[in-house]
Amino acid sequence: MLLSAVPKWYAVYTRSRAEKKVAEEFRKQEIEHYLPLYKTIRQWSDRKKRIELPLIRSYVFVRIGRKDYLKVLQTLHVIKIVHFLGKPVPIPEWQVKNLMILMGAQVEVSATDIKNYEKGEEVIIKSGILQGLRGIIIKIKGKQKILVTISALNFNIVYDINALLIEKINNVNTTNTGIV
Fold this sequence. Notes:
Blueprint: E1 8-14, H1 19-28, E2 33-34, E3 37-43, E4 48-54, E5 59-64, H2 69-73, E6 78-81, E7 83-84, E8 87-88, H3 93-105, E9 122-125, E10 134-140, E11 143-150, E12 155-160, E13 166-168
Antiparallel strand pairs: 1-5, 1-6, 2-5, 3-4, 7-8, 9-10, 9-13, 10-11, 11-12
């Protein structure tokens, strides 16, 4: 097991389409968790309906220490905690916060090419609704986009970004943003 007593974020793999049920069970058990959902419209033969779907299928994030490990594994519809070489893999706090910032914003940021950032540079958004989000610059067809990663799951999200809102990470004191 080898979890520390200090709570850290982990990805929990769930049965297919059971993410919301698992999140509800975690809520009942008072286990800190995060299930990123997005809204979409689905078309049926007789109607359209706005629904919320998990951003990352079959995963729910939990912030746990050693004492809650077994409780999480014994939760209905939980298959496992993501691990590597037999050890649970903690997800860096800043990656989960990035996801929370993106999902909470519920807006698309438009692209502009005012500053010339290099592909692969790590940046932080310094203002606006996505303030504090960290990512890596990628350029696609002349537009600047920010790549947000959850490395333990090999999962990426790409957003258009206004170059006026970002700053290179090595120029920023990240302790002031609450992101570590």
